[in-house]
């Protein structure tokens, strides 16, 4: 029989690991644009029959799942610490990738310098957009999660999971897409300048996918919280 304190500590490490892994992966995959056909032959406003979204959307959605589970189990303050540590680790990752790119390459390297840099190093517009969106949306997610929790007296985990994630994902999507693909290219002169229709298509496509994930992942939030909750649930659920 696994002891209660060991089980919750395992949950803490696992959720922080998932959060940071998904966050770093999102940063590395943000520059690729994805396209998914809308199922059932539907046609959506602005996006038509396909959803276009940055590659980071898939991995980044997992960060909200991890942070909601972490908030529920370990409290608001612990979740905010995780968010801030995640931001710091993103900067560490960017520094490590940059120094590796700048280091001299062996003449017999199987991967060329240009290809290596092109795949791993996002341009300045992606970095600025993703970091700004991260700081604002992740902190909002934690605050919204616990605001809903207080107003529902700790009941309806599904509501705070979906509600906090839906609002924070909207904030994240708007900030990231507009900064990375509109403001930064125009102001800094880096990255591709997209048209207004393309910007709106990216916003809608990314948000619809993230919203769908927020709804679908609710049973998994219940499962994770139930698996790692301490023997005295009130001690965890009332944590600040």
Structural notes for this entry:
By secondary structure, the chain is mainly alpha-helical. It has a single domain, classed as Arp2/3 complex 21 kDa subunit ARPC3. Helix content is 74%, strand content 4%. The protein has 9 helices and 2 strands, in the order H-E-E-H-H-H-H-H-H-H-H. It has helices at 4-29, 56-74, 76-102, 113-120, 124-151, 157-188, 196-216, 218-228, 233-237; strands at residues 33-37, 50-54. A two-stranded antiparallel ribbon has the order 1-2. Helix 2 packs antiparallel against helix 3 (76-102). It is globular and about 55 Å long. The two termini are 29 Å apart. The model is unreliable at 231-239 (pLDDT under 50).
Distance between the termini: 29 Å
Low-confidence stretches: 231-239
Please give the CATH architecture: Orthogonal Bundle
How many DSSP-defined strands? 2
How many DSSP helices?
A: 9
As a percent range, the share of strand residues is: under 5%
Q: What is the CATH top level name?
A: Mainly Alpha
Return the domain count. 1
Gyration radius, in Å: 19 Å
Q: Helicity, in percent?
A: over 70%
Mean pLDDT: 83
Order of SSEs = HEEHHHHHHHH
Largest sheet: 2 strands, antiparallel
Question: Outline, from the CA principal axes?
Answer: globular
* Helix-strand makeup class: mainly alpha
- What is the multimeric organization of the chains shown? single chain
């Amino acid at each position: 029989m696994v002891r209660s304190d060991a089980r919750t500590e395992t949950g803490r490490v696992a959720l922080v690991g998932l959060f940071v892994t998904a966050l770093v992966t999102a940063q590395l995959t943000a520059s690729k644009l994805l396209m998914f056909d809308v199922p059932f032959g539907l046609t959506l406003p602005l996006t038509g029959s396909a959803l276009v979204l940055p590659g980071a959307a898939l991995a980044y959605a997992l960060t909200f799942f991890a942070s909601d589970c972490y908030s529920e189990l370990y409290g608001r303050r612990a979740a905010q610490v995780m968010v801030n540590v995640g931001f710091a680790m993103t900067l560490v990752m960017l520094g490590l990738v940059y120094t590796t790119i700048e280091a001299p390459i062996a003449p017999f390297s199987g991967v060329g310098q240009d290809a290596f840099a092109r795949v791993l190093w996002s341009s300045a517009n992606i970095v600025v957009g993703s970091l700004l969106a991260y700081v604002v949306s992740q902190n909002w997610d934690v605050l919204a999660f616990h605001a809903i929790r207080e107003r529902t007296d700790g009941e309806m985990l599904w509501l705070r999971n979906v509600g906090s994630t839906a609002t924070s994902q909207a904030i994240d999507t708007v900030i990231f897409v507009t900064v990375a693909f509109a403001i930064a290219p125009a102001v800094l002169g880096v990255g591709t300048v997209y048209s207004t229709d393309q910007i709106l298509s990216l916003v809608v496509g990314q948000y619809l996918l993230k919203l769908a994930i927020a709804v679908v992942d609710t049973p998994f939030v219940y499962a994770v919280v139930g698996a790692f909750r301490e023997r005295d649930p009130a001690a965890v659920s009332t944590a600040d």
